[in-house]
Design goal:
Layout lengths: L2 E8 L3 H10 L5 E2 L7 E4 L6 E5 L6 H9 L3 H12 L3 E9 L5 H9 L4 E9 L5 E9 L6 E4 L16 E11 L4 H7 L5 E5 L2 E9 L10
Helix pairs in contact: 2-3
């Protein structure tokens, strides 16, 4: 079964966003040393936050994908690239090395998808690799295998007292709620009829002051 992997949080300017989240008391690391387009806020338990300035997908490659009929994948990337800011994407993950079961579920429902291997070399010299599966309909979260190397800190609480993301509310079409529930039994994920991520709550260490991302 899948569990919640991470939330994509769109930002206009990456360096500015990193500085802003650090001022709010979060430990933040850039995705890569050279020309980063994202940054990560990890927690010891549960999903992490990905601050995304852009998908990093060059326009010529997007055109090539469209040429080969992968319009739905490019539409998803374009949606993230043009998003006005805030939570814009949800990923679910498996600890298995492949997404074969998830593919079968989608195929049984007659739903298309795009499968690709991806990865990056992070700022700590780790070569993180994973496989991503992107359903054609953006009302369904995308899936990924967990990283080959665990990048999360152990027994860590952010300076602002945040220990983890406690719950996420994700809006989708009514017809997809049973499908997502079949794939993901994570109790922290709350589904409703709507569109996109509505609420995200943190768990804090005792005595901490709640943090707002607005």
């Amino acid at each position: 079964m899948l569990r919640v992997s991470h939330i994509i949080y769109k930002v206009d300017h990456l360096q500015q966003a990193v500085e802003d989240f650090r001022r709010r008391g979060f430990e933040v690391e850039y995705g890569t040393k050279r020309r980063p387009y994202n940054a990560l806020i990890y927690f010891s338990e549960g999903p992490y936050l990905e601050l995304l300035a852009s998908t990093g997908m060059p326009k010529p490659l997007k055109r090539l994908l469209r040429f080969f009929g992968k319009d739905a994948m490019v539409d998803r990337l374009d949606c993230w690239d043009s998003h006005g800011g805030g939570p814009c994407g949800l990923a679910l993950e498996t600890l298995k090395k492949d997404l074969n079961e998830e593919r079968k579920v989608l195929e049984r429902q007659g739903l298309g998808y795009f499968l690709m291997k991806s990865g990056r070399n992070d700022t700590k010299g780790r070569k993180l690799r994973f496989t991503g599966l992107f359903p054609d309909d953006m009302q369904i979260p995308f899936f990924m295998t967990y990283f080959n190397i665990d990048p999360k800190p152990r027994n860590f609480t952010h300076p602002n007292g945040v220990k983890r993301i406690r719950s996420i509310a994700f809006g989708t079409e009514e017809r997809y709620i049973p499908l997502i529930r079949e794939l993901c039994s994570d109790e922290m994920l709350h589904l409703f009829v709507g569109k996109g991520i509505k609420d995200m709550e943190f768990e804090y260490a005792p005595g901490s002051t709640p943090v707002s991302l607005d």
